[in-house]
Design goal:
Layout (H helix, E strand, L loop, with lengths): L1 E6 L2 H14 L3 E6 L4 H11 L5 E5 L5 H12 L4 E5 L13 E3 L11 H11 L7 H15 L1 H5 L2 H12 L2 H14 L7 H22 L3 E5 L2 E7 L4 H11 L5 E6 L4 E5 L7 H6 L4 E2 L3 E5 L2 H9 L25 E4 L5 E8 L2 E6 L2 E7 L2 H12 L2 E2 L2 H16 L1
Parallel strand pairs: 1-2, 1-3, 3-4, 4-5, 7-8
Antiparallel strand pairs: 6-7, 8-9, 9-11, 10-11, 12-13, 12-16, 13-14, 14-15
Helix pairs in contact: 1-4, 1-5, 1-8, 2-3, 4-5, 5-7, 7-9, 9-10
Length: about 400
């Protein structure tokens, strides 16, 4: 007999699906939040018999349970932990622990991909094209490779996961993976996902108008309240406001903060770790305890939302050789323009700033971080240029 304790997200449930494909009714699967895993491990060690093989995937145990599992294993108990989070790397000192963030070729791992490798290597599960394709979709979504690879099927798989109950999702996936040669969505799911994408787009459009900007040390965070679509929201807001180092998404009902970033030089698992949380370099989270509540709620509560850049301009365009006009809440004008082939300069209310910038992106980043400026509409741009020409014509 087998028992699997796994995370309750797509990657964790992917492990549960693989376990049921391998062992059927011989495995008991329980899905856990980060905070509930240790209670489950304690219960198992106190109540289950030693003949049951315990698997833990996509989650890691606390220090006390680490010691308990080590003793359990030394006394002949069967246990295997598979994880891919940096915060669990210390468990590799044990025979029963395998934690891999990325392989020797630089390919990022997920719990589902590690478990699939384990099951096929130990001949618990026969490899198949459909299962391998499913595992790869889960891996790409969980590691955020789907965005770089523009693999929308991975994103859609996660959307389907949240549209169904875990039981429905498991049933659908197990049936499909045992009967189809390749993994694909059926026609009903495609229509359902099309509707869901429209809903997500409207939700993101509304939340975009609620985002506030907060400096945290040397970094700048975008903060927004949201109960749903955290991955999609964090991704789109990060691309919309690339001057922000990361997006903090507050789920007040769940008393959690999710962190997302699109930048390779930012590791949000380190930010989450400051508040007792963890996760991936581009997607992490923590509980909204006193310190996190102070920084991301109280310190940001009175801030005004970021103003959006004008979207339908024909003349006041970014990275234009004619220059680009920005404004802030103090009604200051900022004209960002190229001074030569190597640099850009800014005039604030017609006064040249000392700073120069190697690229347009660097100049805009400076404006948005220091002044929270936004790209103005064409009419304001034209009026600005006309005012600049008036002294010359007179």
């Amino acid at each position: 007999m087998y028992k699997l304790l796994s995370h309750n997200d797509l990657d964790g449930v992917g492990c549960g699906i693989l376990a049921k494909l391998a062992w059927g009714k011989m495995v008991k699967v329980r899905y856990n939040s980060v905070s509930s895993l240790d209670r489950e491990v304690e219960w198992f060690l106190e109540n289950e018999n030693q003949n049951i093989f315990l698997f833990i995937t996509d989650l890691s145990v606390n220090e006390e349970n680490e010691k308990r599992l080590a003793t359990f294993h030394e006394n002949g108990g069967k246990v295997q932990l598979l994880d891919h989070h940096k915060t669990a790397l210390h468990l590799n000192v044990y025979d029963w622990g395998r934690v891999l963030v990325e392989d020797d070729e630089g390919k990022l791992a997920s719990a589902t991909s590690l478990f699939y490798e384990y099951l096929t290597t130990h001949q618990f599960l026969k490899p198949s094209e459909s299962v391998a394709e499913f595992v790869e979709l889960v891996r790409q979504y969980d590691t955020w490779e789907w965005e770089k690879n523009e693999n929308l099927h991975a994103q859609r798989l996660n959307a389907l996961f949240f549209l169904l109950t875990i039981e429905e999702f498991e049933e659908k996936m197990i049936s499909r993976l045992t009967s189809d040669e390749h993994f694909q969505f059926d026609e009903f799911e495609k229509k359902l996902l099309d509707l869901e994408e429209d809903k997500i787009e409207r939700y993101i459009r509304r939340k975009r108008r609620e985002l506030v900007q907060l400096q945290t040390g040397k970094q700048f965070a975008g903060i927004v309240y949201a109960e749903s679509y955290h991955s999609e929201l964090g991704n789109e807001l990060g691309k919309e406001y690339p001057h922000l180092d990361y997006i903090a998404i507050l789920n007040i009902g769940g008393k959690r903060v999710g962190f997302r970033t699109i930048h390779d030089h930012i590791d949000v698992s380190e930010i989450a770790g400051q508040f007792g949380g963890g996760g991936h370099a581009k997607a992490s989270g923590c509980s909204l305890h006193t310190e996190a509540f102070q920084q991301f709620v109280l310190d940001a509560f009175d801030l005004e939302p970021i103003r959006e850049d004008a979207r339908r301009n024909r003349y006041n365009l970014k990275d234009s050789s004619f220059g680009s006009l920005y404004k802030n809440r103090m009604e200051d004008n900022f004209f960002l323009y190229p001074i030569d082939a190597l640099g850009w300069a800014i005039k604030q209310n017609n006064k040249l700033l000392q700073e120069t910038f190697a690229s347009f992106e660097d100049g805009e980043r400076y404006l948005k971080r220091k002044y929270e400026a936004w790209l103005v509409r064409d009419d304001a741009f034209v009026n600005y240029l006309m005012n600049q020409l008036q002294p010359i014509s007179q």
